[in-house]
Amino acid sequence: MTYKIAILGASGYTGAELVRLIATHPDLKIAALSADRKAGLDMGAVFPHLRHLDLPTLARIDEIDFSGIDLCFCALPHKTSQDVIRKLPKTLKIVDLSADFRLRDPAEYEKWYGNPHSALEQQGEAVYGLTEFYRDQIRNARLVAGTGCNAATGQFALRPLIAAGVIDLDEIIIDLKTGVSGAGRSLKENLLHAELSEGSHAYAIGGTHRHLAEFDQEFSAVAGRPVKVQFTPHLLPANRGILATVYVKGDPQAVYSALENAYEGEPFVIMCPFGEAPSTRHVRGSNFVHIGVAGDRIEGRAIVVAALDNLTKGSSGQALQNANLMLGLEETAGLMLAPVFP
Amino acid sequence: MTYKIAILGASGYTGAELVRLIATHPDLKIAALSADRKAGLDMGAVFPHLRHLDLPTLARIDEIDFSGIDLCFCALPHKTSQDVIRKLPKTLKIVDLSADFRLRDPAEYEKWYGNPHSALEQQGEAVYGLTEFYRDQIRNARLVAGTGCNAATGQFALRPLIAAGVIDLDEIIIDLKTGVSGAGRSLKENLLHAELSEGSHAYAIGGTHRHLAEFDQEFSAVAGRPVKVQFTPHLLPANRGILATVYVKGDPQAVYSALENAYEGEPFVIMCPFGEAPSTRHVRGSNFVHIGVAGDRIEGRAIVVAALDNLTKGSSGQALQNANLMLGLEETAGLMLAPVFP
Amino acid sequence: MTYKIAILGASGYTGAELVRLIATHPDLKIAALSADRKAGLDMGAVFPHLRHLDLPTLARIDEIDFSGIDLCFCALPHKTSQDVIRKLPKTLKIVDLSADFRLRDPAEYEKWYGNPHSALEQQGEAVYGLTEFYRDQIRNARLVAGTGCNAATGQFALRPLIAAGVIDLDEIIIDLKTGVSGAGRSLKENLLHAELSEGSHAYAIGGTHRHLAEFDQEFSAVAGRPVKVQFTPHLLPANRGILATVYVKGDPQAVYSALENAYEGEPFVIMCPFGEAPSTRHVRGSNFVHIGVAGDRIEGRAIVVAALDNLTKGSSGQALQNANLMLGLEETAGLMLAPVFP
Amino acid sequence: MTYKIAILGASGYTGAELVRLIATHPDLKIAALSADRKAGLDMGAVFPHLRHLDLPTLARIDEIDFSGIDLCFCALPHKTSQDVIRKLPKTLKIVDLSADFRLRDPAEYEKWYGNPHSALEQQGEAVYGLTEFYRDQIRNARLVAGTGCNAATGQFALRPLIAAGVIDLDEIIIDLKTGVSGAGRSLKENLLHAELSEGSHAYAIGGTHRHLAEFDQEFSAVAGRPVKVQFTPHLLPANRGILATVYVKGDPQAVYSALENAYEGEPFVIMCPFGEAPSTRHVRGSNFVHIGVAGDRIEGRAIVVAALDNLTKGSSGQALQNANLMLGLEETAGLMLAPVFP
Q1: Which of B75, C14, D15, D94 could covalently link to D10 via disulfide, CB atoms 3.0 to 4.6 Å apart?
Q2: Neighbours of A113 (CB within 10 A)
Q3: Beta bridge pairs of residue B78
Q4: What is the ipTM of this complex?
Q5: pLDDT of A281
């Protein structure tokens, strides 16, 4: 059986990445694509790398007939997303890629995003979309909230350690390096090639990045007590890839074992041999996460490094993995593409 | 039915690219991998992006039992390749990715490569592997010679024009820009990141690049008279991608029509609308070729631009496309992966 | 003696490059900087790489007192530039970096830029700023029009050949590769890092790039008859650097000699040994031009390759070289900085 | 007066960077260049970006007459350097850029570098070359040991904090990102463009990087007690630049004040406004260090970020700054070149 898919916000990078992945998915067919400002255009004019595909013309959201759609991906900016999703059919399965439904507490949402939430009912039913940790709820969910790409990377490194009680919860530092596509296709001076290439810098330093809200919510839930991490993101002169270097206090072997046990049998999470560090190059374009662990020369300290592709496992690949579960398909369907290297 | 595949030279980029593509191919299974200097290692240690796959350990060629192999890819350096292929079972289907079997005339081979050919018998039976133009011979071939990646790009732009008689055969200039992975994983100072990034230069200027031998052979064959083109390759600070900007004398619309007609129905060759130029970014990691045409302001001149990924359509993807034909499989099997952008 | 300098349009890349160069110039002092939208800001806030300098605060143009200024650089967008320069004191020495005063024929200006010229008086007195070929006029000029960066590169390769009569004037092709900073600091989707990095494409194909107007004007003047070249620019995934690969018909040795003779004693134009091609990496951040020549395998054809840094020799370095002459200073003052490699 | 300079190891990146800087230095003249394997070649053949300079031909070290040399830079690999310097005239002023004379304790040297030191006498007299902190000793030194580039970056961020007693000495983490040119011009597979571009990874994780020996020596000396930091370097896909993100426990304002006080009047160390983070792009090609500080959301924690160019302030620029002092010249002579951006 083939399921019919709509993608809202198809003119952004996560929308295009969904199309790329679904292009070779055995059970899904794209039935509708929206892009308000580019409505009327062919997808190939907006994203020439998709030129070879036979796709619906970009439409405005209000032009789409959702009655024949089995599942809808929303790749819209946050705030827009809640306004749109509030009005979609109540029975439509939805995977949202924005930040709008990630936080369970509306007050936390308002604190980090600056506006009151306009779709509290939907927020109440949304399931947090980190597949490996919410698999059963996702299978039965109507609305799944895709995680932040940085938030996903940090959680892959840390959740099993918090759950296993092998690290000091008050001494966690996440130093993260991210490719530029995570900032989307937006016209900002600091995203120009001439501004970004050939160097690196930290941004949102001092604990101000919004993905901290997800870390707080999730790590505290796993720990059963408040957990606050330090988190400093940096921009890499590369398009794809997130590398999270996580500094923890705990026994390195216990740290490694906790991760190895947690990810045994997971199709997308790959442990490097102990002492080896992963690279973003080696997950590029794929849904895989590579995780490495090393002990420091200072006893009782460990370094955990996690690498994933922000557009795939960090957003659109994760979204498709969740959609597979929601539709009763094989979780890995369409997602076993090997990374593209070099 | 699943066919068993061997890849010789799996520690190079074209070898790894074959593994990447075959990883999601429905009908092929990798049964043997060779890499003489890295024999005994796991593929994941040599190419960590393939870490998630269950692959045979790298072996020396003489350790491989070819009796159970249905088709063998040779991704060895030229000269090595002919020595190895000469000794392989005479009934084994082979797709060679080196330069060794591309030229039909042994004298031409010796002129451009500097050594007499050591496997003349195999050279005699080899079919030139530009699938779109040798499809029927490839279907029945035992040994197919993969084309040069630059040679493939130039031919996609020019063969239909020569065949249709719409351009001046004595006034063809190919200005080509190529990513660095085409030079392989070899330890050369000029391939270091610090030497290559952030700039560009021409190399092999003055008509000395070996792929000229392929242009001469193929274009002359199509034209039925000697054709000699000018060809200047440049290195791009990018890993993948070849862009051939081809200057011809002829009517631009006739040029466009000749290409459009030639590629009608071709699954991997995509024409841009007239006047639009393709980009290497939009074919990255895929088996697609994008071709654009524009007329110049000087009447009677046209510019044809062709873009492909040197590691995919330029070598390993092409090789797999040929293997599909040789094994009686769907030509596009495992090759419809959409390009990875950004 | 120290001369006082104003830079209008200091928030763009060419403005910042002027500041960088003047920072170590022995005889110049920056007395005023304008940037209308960023007026009131420190230069270090707009360009942190200039943070260490003691510079005037960015002002609106109408806030600047030009009475104490010896020379003014205009690094404004074209069209804005003519409106501003029309109103500047008639005795002020000006080096303009825009396209507004490059073309001598107002009709040509209107044809290529789409609007009638608004400062015809100033256009009439402007001297074309390609220093090596207009040195004497520049020395006595009040207003010098900086050349297009692509136009400069092509002219360095071709002017001596046209002047010497060693090439066929109807068969000139300029295939040019340019870094992205030439497009300025403007917010366009196609200048984003994610859109531009890791690949290349041709733009303005078919003879539509505005720098063709300069080629037409200059080459025809040198030849004493109309000369029309073919010119196709490509974007490189690099910030700085232009590489012009020029295809000509003529004797390669005669071509080399004509260039060698023309540039003998020139401080900034360096000939590579015959047969060697230059690289943009090797002129980065400097005012040097490197030129190489090779013969093709087809007799009677030569390839000339010229490399320069679009922001330095292609615009701001050239502008400073001209300013030096206009102020009676050593032409090379402040400009002998060696290229930055790697 | 002009001083005569020799550079040993001129075919590496730090050697070439010395030539670049000295090219516009008012008081120095390059009298000899060595490069054993490339002896007999012109510098322009080895580094075409220096093609415009009139330089001595590359020679073997034993061909150089040191009697007329005022100061010698040794840009040789470590271990080679000590063997060469041991045999140089005892009165020759030397700035060594290798690791050989950085560590005062020969046992520490042997522990981190794996071989006993062969020039103990010279090691005994060497002064550690971090100019801002050893200025007086350097002025009177015969032999100055250039610091590690990573070691310099970390020390700029931390020395004043340790000296001022404003941070917890047992809780210091340095997460460092470095451009690839720091690894030199060596033929290693992991330095190829195809391996390094478009991604990032940690290396030497777990406290194994040799620059830790410098951190231990220097921080312990400043503190007057043993200090051991955590240090994880990462490779950036960029040629130049080091960014050190340093996590400390202490009051952020006290941290900022300590740095501001320490660097008041320093010509090359620039503090960003509180809360702002520097970028490697903004120091590229220059001798400047930019330092930023922010407080974390967790009270009592601060983040210090330092950025410099590994080839300039991290090695060759630092070396020249030291040479200026040793020769009684202005410390900043030849070093005020503004960074090259973009």
Answers
A1: D15
A2: 17
A3: none
A4: 0.97
A5: 97
